[in-house]
Write a structure and sequence with these properties.
Blueprint: H1 18-29, E1 36-40, E2 46-47, E3 54-58, E4 63-68, E5 73-78, E6 84-88, E7 97-104, E8 109-116, H2 125-144, E9 147-157, E10 160-173, E11 179-194, E12 200-208, H3 212-229, E13 230-232
Antiparallel strand pairs: 1-6, 2-3, 3-4, 4-5, 5-13, 6-7, 7-8, 8-12, 9-10, 10-11, 11-12
Length: 234
Amino acid sequence: MGRPRPTARFRFRALGNPRVVVPVLLALASCTSPELVELRFTGHDVSDPKGHLILQGDKAQGRIRLRAPKDRYELSVPYAEDWRFTTTERVHGSGPLLALQAASSEQGFYVRLTIVESPGHAVDREAYLREEVLKDLKSRVTANGQFDLDRPVLERVDGEPVLDCIQEDYRRVGFFYTRRELADRWFKVYALRQEGAGPLYRIELTAWSEDDDSISKLRPVMRNVAGKGLRIAD
């Protein structure tokens, strides 16, 4: 019997389902951050009382604009009335912060935004994606042997360098677990923002993908979010 097929072309698996991912990440984040803010967009503009997150939807334009005044960034994502956003209060001097987690099963992908303290100088964003992000992914393939990296592409979107790739996860099967079998296939997109010599804003988008058809439909949407949707606010 072959692998059971998904009930929809784009869907979240165990790690991609907002009902699973967000509560788990909330629990993990609560260990390192004193405050969490969670907002759900259901078609109406909404903000939290302390002003960490402000959500404004425009159904006609097909976009939701997220503003995070305290962390000084804005993010635009495709319109859907099932987006769930979670952010943490920024703690300076505590290392990289998983600042935002967002998921929509209607759109079919998941967003993570990490803020890294300033390295003290302006970073070449294209070189960072190639030499830090892609190099790290390739080193994990070599060391782990449980997943492969396929078709990495580093191109510009609206002038911003954007990296995307396919990650194929495998499990060991058969007698003595000597044979590898494809378990999951993920499409990933990465981009970076920095203002002057300030902090680094690293965005990562992930979607579970059944086949190349799925990727061809998701790729422009996710790359647009990474390349055009994120900006550092004044």
